[in-house]
Design a protein that fits this description.
CATH architecture: 5-stranded Propeller
Helix content: 25-40%
Structural class: alpha/beta
Number of helices: 11
Number of strands: 16
CATH class: Alpha Beta
Low-confidence stretches: none
Distance between the termini: 40 Å
Order of helices and strands: EHEHHEEHHEEEEHEEEHEHHEEHEHE
Length: 355
Amino acid sequence: MPQNEFNVWSKWDPLKKVVIGTCVSPQYFEHVANLEIKEKLQQIVIETQQDLDNLAEVCTNLGIQTYRVDATQQGFAKPLDPGKKAKGIQSMLYPRDQLAVIGNHLISADKYIMFNNLYPQFITQDILQRSTPWYELHHKHKIAVIVPPSWTLVGKDLFIDTGMESGDLTYTNQTIRESVENWLAKWWPEITLHWVNIGGHNDSCFHTLKPGVLLSLHDVMAYEDTFPNWDICYLPDASYKTIPEFIDAKDITDGKFWIPGEEKNVGLLNYINEWLDNWVGFVEETVFDVNCLVVDESTVLVNNYNKQVFDFLKKHKMEPIICPMRHRYFFDGGIHCVSLDLYREGSCESYIDYK
């Protein structure tokens, strides 16, 4: 895929090309001696792959060219070795954790993702050349890690969360912030950068649905300053404290993950804590209703039914399509996490009136 075939300026322009993630195969757990634990873990990855396949099929049926992450590529998780902790599988399950498209350029969060050729369908040698924003970010400014889910592009305005820290990148570090600012000013002078302090992935805190419309958690930011006069649907916290089953397991999981129906399966939960801690996040702070994928200004893919969200979408003439992600409470990722928009029909426009 040539570089000039990337085009993303907002989350709602008509989606034409998308990447959908992949989960490991059930053979990954063939070595596990405890049959009950092995079968449950295999069930989780089988059903996760089924949900990813369904999401890809829905996108294809909507006329979107859909790319799948190839789990056989170098650098992806190999079958788990007995006695060793599992490596993270975020690079294959969550392409958005690794990559972002800004305008007509693909940017990688980690320079080794590209060098290891994990995404051969659309990463070409052209992207690795010196005259690209990706190369300059990693090699000139020496910023080896960015956090794409904490970047939200809204036409001529880019919002980056200063509260996220990853590897050598701390946006509270003034030198790194200036490097990012200079990098953006060189490659996208038409974009205005806004630093916001959210402390989590943007796509699980707020989501722009169409011009003037967004979903949000409470107390994310002062929208009268960042998105003045936009219609905002404020969603309540997930309120896991009111779910007895979640509380039953929290003494073991520390709120990092939840497998409904397995709250008292101490052997399974302890196994995950010991061997799969790189797979889980911190689900207790996640509200998945924010984590959606907008196809265009009239269609949005969502994880589940939520009356408040569906009423808000109906108000703005948007049709939701439910694409279940049954194990989002285990992997701590929803539809937006497992997808990456590569091309949307649209251009760089101003959607926010700051006057």
